[in-house]
Amino acid sequence: MNQQNTNLERFFYDNKIVRNFAYATILWGVVGMAAGLWAALQLAFPALNFSTAEVSFGRLRPLHTNAAIFAFVGNGIFMGVYYSLQRLLKARMYSDVLSKVHFWGWQLIIVAAALTIPLGYTTGKEYAELEWPIDIAITLVWVIFGLNMFLTIFKRRERHLYVAIWFYIATWITVAMLHIVNSLEWPVHMLKSYSMFAGVQDALVQWWYGHNAVAFFLTTPYLGLMYYFMPKAANRPVFSYRLSIIHFWALIFIYIWAGPHHLLYTALPEWAQSLGMVFSLMLIAPSWGGMLNGLLTLRGAWDRVRQDPVLKFMVVAVSAYGMATLEGPLLSIKSVNAITHYTDWTVAHVHVGTLGWNGMLTFAILYWLLPRIFNTSIYSMKLANAHFLLSTLGVAFYSIPMYWAGWTQSLMWKAFTPDGFLQYGNFLETVTQIVPMYVVRALGGTIYLVGVFLMVYNLYKTVKSGNLTENEAAEAPALEAYVPHKGEHWHRWIERRPVQLLIGSLIVVAIGGLLEILPMQFIESNVPKIASVKPYTPLELEGRDIYLREGCYNCHSQMIRPMRSETERYGEYSKSGEFVYDHPFQWGSKRTGPDLHRVGGKYPDSWHYNHMYDPESIAPGSIMPPYPWLTEDKLDTKYTASKIKVMRSLGVPYPNGYEDRAVEELEAQAAKIAANLRADKIEDDELEKKEIVALIAYLQRLGTDIKKLDQVVE
Amino acid sequence: MYKYLLQSSADSINWMGIMVLVTFVVIFVVVLIQVFFQRKTFVNHMSQLPLDDSLAPNHRK
């Protein structure tokens, strides 16, 4: 092949950008995991939010998930891609300037997220909480990354693209598609917008995005890294290159369909649920093909796994990938999902993936890569081995209590007495039962984080003992014009052509997205209308925005599944027609607290006031944080009229000119609620102006429209 | 127009499931066939790619 060419060109790999992304990975890893630990501790010891709005659980949890996914894993992806892409293509990155803009742009986005999420600026959609200006910035930086990657591919010295690069290309195009579609939102002001989609359609788009954020941000780029760094660390080629090709096409085709498994038994139409379940089950095959391909790459090198911490981390990472990708399809079976959904089982499942697969593969790459670009060796193998031990123990101590908590709580939710009543009618009983498991989970998180601190120290000493080769010299022959020869296979054709590979990947992933989402958007019978369902009043709309701001969806669902255990506890099951004005939907994915869809009218206004002010005064033993600021802060009605206008433009049938009298109506409704509160001896001179009144209005409206049964058309 | 096009098929949405299955099987079979007919020298070259950072002699791998 090319080696026969003797005209070697000399060039230099850019190691500085790799180092920068490595440092950012470490920094944001510590921040993201510390935020996670803090959130975990709050569930065991609610006082740890110090009654501070910015760090209450509903804001801290999105901060943790965004930091762990987009800051820690995101920088980890870029570190690995910038290192491997240059070497696989035998070319320096196309532009140092683009690399720098990409690096600093991504870090600025992270800082913007770290500021806006605690301040309560959120779209209210899981893993996509960032507001619209940041969404635009993400798109721009992502385009810069793609441009730099493709221009590098175009000037490559290796004709064929190794499978890792296909994974990078598929990641880039799919993440772009998912991010843009799920972030379609209409701005109210610079830091507030409403999703263009509503209710069941928003739910489908969100989980098409949410699931594929797992697939194409936490999985495919890391598989690319596995296919590069595992052969590198084991110093032997991948077990089967042929299998890696089958792995690639099967995985990206199937993954994109699996989103609806997050919505089983919800108001999503049955056909979409079945589609999600079937494709999720099919995913076992390519996922395990990839896992085995990774593990078998170590054939003949297993003796080294006993000593080398890099290989140890890799083996456990790939095993965790295998466990998570077997468990995921099983959780997608409807009958299993009926037990697991909304419980801590899901939390255990995702942490096997993130702590095991993403975390440990990142650590392996850091331990392998930093000594190489700094021309040194790991400062302490003992510390690295201790880190491995702590990581493995941490994952076990994290996930086992969470599995236990999930089973316990689910069984308690579904337990009936012989007389046919709920055995644990008070939801709180099912929470206090699992608090000890939350304590052990926090211990698991602490062990994992201590391991990370050992790594930080070890890598600091490693870096100090060496010198960075900013520009690493390499040689390879220039790429000559290719003359296709007779009888070659079409796949070799595509392996030479990155643009065709990009388009092929886009077509494969877009088929799934289009066929799932378009029918939901256009076929009206998928969302039967209910005549008695009306738009929110201005006060309820403001209250809903407070619900979003405080991140209530992190602990409360608004989706009662059609199961006896749920209808007994919460009331009539949820219908898709009830959510047609919900921009965005708030179905939630976890019940740390009870479902709220039928909470409207269940308690007096004063109950909500006292409960929000101090949950323990109403429900002793509750782990819900107190929200005293809601009783102190005045409701800002500056944007109420604009919100009504934006909602109307999104299809909510507010009459023309309604925005002009919105604040007036808001004040009238607030006065009524304040009068109710005063009648129950809640004293405050300016009660009607407080945020809590708006939130009460929203909570009292929830799920009540359908109770006007005589008006129901369909 | 698209709205009505899709509306007409609302009662029998099964064609989508079948189409998806057929598309997947076609893609999978085509990939499978071509992968097993690739030449061994080519496969070896591809799987060696991560191990060669530089094609110059004596370069550290």
Main features:
heterodimer, A: 714 residues, mainly alpha, Four Helix Bundle (Hemerythrin (Met), subunit A), Cytochrome C Oxidase, Chain A, Cytochrome Bc1 Complex, Chain D, domain 2, 3 domains, two-stranded antiparallel ribbon, two-stranded antiparallel sheet, 26 helices, globular, B: 61 residues, elongated
Architecture of the largest domain in chain A, CATH level 2? Up-down Bundle
Quote the beta fraction of chain B: under 5%
Can you count the helices of chain B? 3
Q: List the uncertain runs of chain A.
A: none
What does this structure look like?
The complex is a heterodimer of chains A (714) and B (61). With 714 residues, chain A is mainly alpha-helical. Chain A folds into three domains: 9-160, Up-down Bundle (Four Helix Bundle (Hemerythrin (Met), subunit A)), CATH 1.20.120; 304-477, Cytochrome c oxidase-like, subunit I domain (Cytochrome C Oxidase, Chain A), CATH 1.20.210; 538-711, Cytochrome Bc1 Complex, Chain D, domain 2, CATH 1.10.760. Chain A has 26 helices and four strands. Chain A has helices at residues 16-44, 57-89, 96-116, 132-154, 163-182, 199-234, 241-255, 270-282, 284-296, 302-305, 309-331, 334-340, 344-373, 381-413, 427-432, 435-464, 490-495, 498-522, 538-549, 564-570, 605-613, 615-618, 629-632, 640-649, 658-679, 691-701, and strands at 8-14, 185-189, 192-195, 471-477. In chain A, the strands form two sheets. Chain A has a two-stranded antiparallel ribbon. Chain A has a two-stranded antiparallel sheet with strand order 2-3. In chain A, a hairpin with a 2-residue loop joins strand 2 (185-189) and strand 3 (192-195). Chain B is elongated, with a radius of gyration of 23 Å. The longest helix of chain B is centred in the middle third of the chain and has 23 residues, at 14-36. Chain B has a domain at 20-45. Classes of the chains: A mainly alpha (714), B mainly alpha (61). The interface between A and B is large, with 55 and 38 residues.
